[in-house]
Amino acid sequence: MTKAQVTIPLDLPEVQVLKSEINQAGELIITVESTKGTAVCRRCGKVIRKFHGYDDWVKVRYLPVFGRPTYLRYRPKRYRCEYCDGHPTSSQHLDWHEPNSPNAFIYEQHILLQLVNATLEDVAVKERLSYDSVLGILERHIRDEVDWSQYVRLDRLGLDEIALRKGHRDFVTIVTSRLKNGRMVILAVLSDREKDSVVEFLRSIPQRLKKTIESACCDMYEGYTEAIREELPGVRLVIDRFHITRAYRDGLEQVRKTELRRLKKELSAQEYERLKGSMWALRKEKQDLTPEEHRTLGRLFRLSPDLKTAYGLQNRLTDIFEERISVKTAKTKIQKWMVAVAKSGLRCFDSFINTLGRWWNEILNYFVARETSGFVEGFNNRIKVLKRRCYGITNVAHLFQRIYLDLEGYRLFAQPPYMALSR
Fold first, then answer.
1. Which of 243, 191, 204 is nearest to 372 (CA)?
2. Which end of the chain is more exposed for a tag (fewer CB within 10 A), N or C?
């Protein structure tokens, strides 16, 4: 009985299929021949056309077909140069295969696509490759530092740190950019968060791109802010709103802890139990509170006027940051808020008010275009997932490669048909 068959294009330029067979291992072997009639002389670089013969057979891994490992088998043609003394011969190089590589370009593209949001070991097992083979593909095609030629603008920089290993304080700096079209790109993984390292990186940015940077968002770490002021003096420095919010909410948290300790001593166990859940209610946005949480806060505020005052002041400042107002208006409103804090007699916001004084202009810069490094904070969560998935990555070059591949892999390697990778 004749077996059912289908015809599948190889999508390889200047190649004809001679035969196909399945070996005892269940692998599909496709024997092909180049139809290209020229080569390039290895000595003079000229195009040569005088056919000389064939090299030994080459077996190259290709895209799997119906789940079968697939290989292309061919003999590279050799051509003789009539321009050079001695008429040396040169092997023909094909667009779809790098000489001495065990894989076709399109297969390595396939492997890189499989690596997006996956581990080297997972891909090695699924593709029946060694771990080192998959790592080699990654290192051949994914740079371990930024390629500035890819960018025409940088728009908004974001700087933040992550720990390579939890609890070890071995921080690295992640430098990213948010482009005008919303696309986020990775620019660097610096081996530490020292000012000198940040300065060195900022100096490496081509002048043509420095001119396109409008703002830089970071936390209140002076290693970042001083480096930005020195190397990017015309760039608007914005202290991230997330860190500002956390700073003034710490003031409310101080009052909450103090007041609940007091109430625990003064109230009966049954009365104190009715305040259960107040911590989370205090931390939620007003519009997100449930009716029960409103009642819990009402009971708490009747017992603690200071906490009610602090809660109102916190929300008043949050409302200012939520408004779409000018820098001048924001400045006036925040100054009035500071006066209200002073009149309240509460000292819980003293530390934050000192922070305001120290970073006044950088905090107000938020109101120019309501820029934050929220994109950095969200991206850091993705990096943490990447580290957990890979059981930790302590090499900063490898970390840059994996971050870049997770960000750009689908855009670069999920575009049919065949696309040659850069060599």
1. 243
2. N
